[in-house]
Amino acid sequence: MTHLSDHDLWITGSNRIATMAPGPGDLFVVTTMFGKPVLVEPVDQYDRAVRVAEGFARRLRHDRPLTIRVMGMSLHELLAFMGITEAELAAGISPKVEGEFRQLAIDACMGALRECNEPTVRKDAFDLLIKLGILKQ
Q1: In 3D, which of 24, 100, 6, 101 has the Cα closest to residue 60?
Q2: Is the pLDDT reported for residue 12 higher than 70?
Q3: Hey, where are the domains in the chain?
Q4: 41-100 pLDDT, tens per residue?
Q5: Which of 18, 43, 73, 110 fits a 20 to 30 Å CA distance from 118?
Q6: Is the separation of the CB atoms in 127 and 136 below 8 Å?
């Protein structure tokens, strides 16, 4: 049985946190408990996700020690982890949300072209901008 204390207990008890910092190409930070994702956030929120996990570790009490994992993932890794395909993800998106996602993708790719020193990330961003019709080859 799992119990969530109303108080920050200051110690993790026997709970622990396992972290894996995001690597090149990771877009998300995923926090899991009991082997299931409980939080999925943009990769720039990694430090915040670790702090939230630490808070959970201090407040959660379970009959067995609990490991909370915080790790970076690419889109393909996240979809595989959640057991869905890109087509299934896109099937339920409204035109308005699709437009917002498109603009976010464009902004992220343009930022990668301006600021990223990783050649593969820059190439992926460039290729996606061509595919979206923003750039011409």
Answers
A1: 6
A2: no
A3: 2-84, 93-131
A4: 888 889 999 999 998 888 887 788 889 999 999 888 988 888 888 888 778 788 888 888
A5: 18
A6: no
